[in-house]
Amino acid sequence: MSVRALVIGAGIAGLATALAIARYDNVVICAPPDGWREGSTYRAQGGIAAAWGEDDDWHRHLEDTLLVTRGLADPGAVRILAEEARQAVAPLVEAGIFEMADSFHPDLGREAGHSRSRILHAKGGLTGRVVSRYLYQQALSHPRIRFVEGFAEKLIVDSREICRGSWIRTPSSRIIGILAPATVLATGGYAALWQRTSNHPASVGNGLLLAYEAGAELSDLEFVQFHPTILAQDVPRGGALLLTEALRGFGAHLVNAAGERFMQDYPGQELAGRDEVARAVYQQGTAYLTLRHLNRDRVYDHFGQLADLLSQRHFDLAQDLLPVAPGAHFSMGGVCTGYFGETRVQSLYAAGEAANTGVHGANRLASNSLLEALVFSARIARHITENLKRPDSFVLPDPPMLSRKAAQTEILRRLGDIMDRHFGVIRHPHLMVQGLERLKSLQTADNHRILQLCLLIGQSALRREESRGAHCRSDFPESETDWAGHLIHLESRGIEFREVSGVLKPR
């Protein structure tokens, strides 16, 4: 089979990229069994941001994003995101994905950091699940898309540092090589390296390490967004339930143990920036989300699927005080890309949460993540189909030795404890130093790769001596002009600081 692109991952970024490329050529999607259900897209509750209302436009969306991202977003990338949002979302509106106010206008919600109501959401509140199911069904029936079950083990890079494809470990532990003129990493983020997380347990940054080992750059690894309202329950890693920000947009309040609202004095109150809300919840120690003051029937009608999930955990969405705590939710850091998803390694692209496109800066604006996947996936597909020439013939080398799989459940549990304690919502210098030492003490030949990313994250967090967005340090509580830039990791050079340009770059 002649393949134009290999897409690794089956979340919204992987599926959208594959579908866009498949309009012109054949594509292989590599994903684990039920991969479309395993990533962050399937768990995404809020929605997709797009300037759709009559009182809104993409300029306002751009301004809101730049404000929340605390000076580290690339204005050119944010312009692309905001300006192309409506075009990217329109096919899903036409497919009937979103709740509608009338026959022509989506019902637009409000979330933290947005100056207008611009969040499109599926009925029941589980937008990511509805979107991923729709895209998966489209891909599954497409004649130019083929699925291969497996896990990317190592990228195939030739002597000229051109990516030629990837070695795939099948569920039966065979290793096969898939060659393609373009390879797209759409493998998700790394928030499941923390114990309390909204992410699926598989979201531990494997794609970032593949790219790093192949010669790509990683950046902004210290910026991990902690969602302020994870249901506070003692559950296995990856089993936590996120209580969507849309609840607060709907009117839910955050209260302390005495039943008092503690966000009233913040600009935006419960809809302040996520970094502010997460820190406020963390500092309370005990905090609750409540919708008791709202109309019960409207709550159930608007968030029916979430109410069912809570009922399974013996909570009533409309009536109970819901205990909440911050949990690792979204990775702003990732593989450095250009405006078309291209990386430093020729023929290698990154999309979705695995990528650092420049739109999230130090603190992602709510509901910009699914949008980012749609917008930049379309751009990747366009770049591949219009610009990438098929390379000359290439002989597949001998496969690499399969790495012996360590007992990852135990390793990840220990890593989760370290990341929660030493690199959490508020970071203390002595704890970070201790955390790095603990990480180094765990290294063995079998688990080196899974620890590598934790070490890079920890090194970035310790080196950035300021507080900015999702990165909060007890010893440096303010943002500093000298730190208006990015910490870049390149395997051949180590870590370096790169200043932001602050220029609205041309598209």
CATH architecture of the domain at 224-328: Alpha-Beta Complex
Q: What's the CATH first level of the domain at 224-328?
A: Alpha Beta
Q: And the CATH topology of the domain at 224-328?
A: Flavocytochrome C3, Chain A, domain 1
- Roughly what fraction of the amino acids lie in strands? 15-25%
Structural class assignment: alpha/beta
Care to count the β-strands? 20
Shape label: globular
Quick summary of this structure?
The chain contains 16 helices and 20 strands.
Characterise the protein shown here.
The C terminus is likely disordered. 54% of the residues are buried. β19 and β20 form a beta hairpin. The longest helix is centred in the C-terminal third of the chain and has 19 residues. This protein has 507 residues and is of the alpha/beta class. The chain is globular and about 65 Å long. It has a 5-stranded parallel β-sheet. It has a 5-stranded mixed β-sheet with strand order 18-16-11-19-20, covered by helices on one side. Helix content is 33%, strand content 18%.
Lay out the secondary structure.
Elements: E1 5-8, H1 12-21, E2 27-31, H2 35-38, H3 40-43, E3 48-49, H4 58-68, H5 75-83, H6 85-94, E4 108-109, E5 119-120, H7 127-140, E6 145-149, E7 151-157, E8 163-169, E9 175-179, E10 182-185, H8 206-214, E11 218-219, E12 224-231, H9 246-250, E13 253-256, H10 274-284, E14 287-290, H11 296-302, H12 304-312, E15 322-331, E16 334-336, E17 348-350, E18 355-356, H13 369-387, H14 408-422, H15 429-442, H16 448-463, E19 485-490, E20 494-499
Parallel strand pairs: 1-2, 1-10, 2-6, 10-17, 16-18
Antiparallel strand pairs: 3-5, 4-5, 7-8, 8-9, 11-16, 11-19, 12-15, 13-14, 14-15, 19-20
Helix pairs in contact: 1-7, 1-13, 4-5, 6-13, 14-15, 15-16
